[in-house]
Write a structure and sequence with these properties.
Helices cover about 30% and strands about 25% of the residues. The protein has about 400 residues and is α/β, with parallel strands linked by helices. Strands 5, 6, 7, 11, 12, 13, 14, 15 and 16 form a nine-stranded mixed β-sheet that branches. The chain has a six-stranded mixed β-sheet with strand order 9-2-1-10-18-17, sandwiched between helices. Strands 3-8-4 form a three-stranded antiparallel β-sheet, covered by helices on one side. The mean pLDDT is about 95.
Length: about 400
């Protein structure tokens, strides 16, 4: 059967969304219910078309997340399972490590809090290093102190998604591209599981779900350091995040293919597929502007909102921010790099939904929020979703 074939008239379970999480869920359901007829519906003409293939490829260790949250638990567990899966399948995986660097005295207390969170989350292979030890890990990096996570890795999440798809098909599942879902599904099924990413709020509301949270698209653009200067960084170098701001700030990532990226930016954008800054879709923009949470977020973080807009159009600003961590970047040449659009779930008051959020609507299961580290956590998160679907 071809992935371009239309779906069957009926099946036992339908999974909506062909990103890495939807594919992991379909695979998990088929493993648990081998005799069930399960089909996966994807609106685009290819799998992993959006967030799953528009990211830096970092496999997170679990440092940042609130202890006790689903993100904390499933990141640590999921990263270990994903490492084993990639080793078994011969998929891309390189352990590069991460430094989270404090460059100012005021960041040291926040660095201590990150260490506390990481220990509570079970990130045991973590060390606090001083200024001299920073240079031993990353010779070009500078700072007062840092956390070193040696197990942080990089991979190719789109390749992993395709492997999940092949597992699912080998087990008897079917994939149907170019098959959008709406209020009424194009296939009759007993249970439907929605892993729709950037469209998750629309599909949930269409099928009777809660009015909030809503997805507000956040464009993350990267700069790429010229290839002959990419060895300035060996792995990942991150700043200490400001707890008053909703994002991690400009950091440096050495991707699996060896590119050195600076970013990402974090700008509210005019389309849910705004991989180019100029892409604006009236329906997407209208929904974003009509949602009270958008304005509440921008009022609360007005300065960061303006800064991120400036970072998105002026490369030198982003480079300067990253140069606080790696001063040699002041002389580096950069070109525009990849970009992605984050499905950011916001409530009516402008609060970011921090944890994974799953909503049951009758026989439907809707993943309403799956922010980073959803790709890292995909195998473990899929287990949780499959359990809920079959409950």
């Amino acid at each position: 059967m071809s992935r371009n074939d239309p779906p069957p008239a009926a099946c036992d379970i339908a999974v909506v969304g062909g990103g890495i999480l939807g594919l992991a869920v379909a695979r998990e359901l088929k493993l648990r219910q081998p005799d069930a007829s399960i089909c996966l519906l994807e609106a685009e003409g290819r799998l992993a078309a959006h967030q799953s293939s528009h990211n830096s490829g970092v496999v997170h260790a679990g440092v940042y997340y609130q202890p006790g949250s689903l993100r904390a638990k499933l990141c640590v567990e999921g990263a270990a399972r994903l490492r084993e899966y990639c080793a078994e399948r011969g998929l891309p995986w390189r352990t590069t490590g991460k430094l989270i660097v404090a460059t100012e005295e005021g960041e040291l207390t926040r660095l201590d809090e990150l260490e506390r969170r990481a220990r509570a989350n079970g990130v045991n292979e973590l060390t606090k290093v001083d200024a001299a030890e920073i240079a031993q890990v990353e010779p070009a990096a500078r700072g007062l102190s840092a956390l070193h996570s040696p197990t942080t890795a990089v991979t190719d999440f789109a390749a992993i998604a395709e492997s999940f798809a092949q597992d699912f098909e080998t087990a008897g599942g079917t994939i149907h591209l170019g098959t959008p879902a709406a209020k009424r599904l194009p296939v009759d099924c007993e249970t439907a599981v929605f892993c729709a990413g950037l469209q998750s709020d629309r599909l949930a509301r269409a099928r009777g779900g809660s009015a909030e949270p809503r997805i507000v698209p956040i464009r993350g653009g990267y700069l790429e350091v010229r290839a002959d200067q990419s060895d300035l960084v060996r792995g990942n170098v991150y700043p200490v995040p400001d707890p008053d701001l909703p994002f991690l700030g400009a950091h440096l990532t050495r991707t699996f293919d060896g590119a050195l990226l600076i970013g990402p930016t974090a700008m509210i954008t005019g389309a849910r597929d705004a991989y180019r800054l100029s892409t604006v879709r009236r329906h997407d923009l209208g929904e974003t502007l009509r949602w009270p949470g958008t304005w509440a977020l921008m009022r609360r973080h007005w300065r960061a909102t303006l800064d991120e807009a400036a970072n998105s159009v002026r490369a030198n600003r982003l480079t300067r921010q990253a140069a606080r961590l790696v001063p040699a970047l002041h002389g580096a040449e950069v070109i525009p790099g990849p970009a992605g659009v984050r499905a950011q779930a916001l409530d009516r008051r402008g609060n970011l939904v921090e944890d994974f959020l799953i909503e049951r609507i009758g026989d439907d299961i809707h993943v309403r929020n799956a922010p980073s580290p959803a790709a890292t956590s995909s195998l473990s998160l899929a287990g949780l979703i499959a359990h809920e679907a079959l409950r």
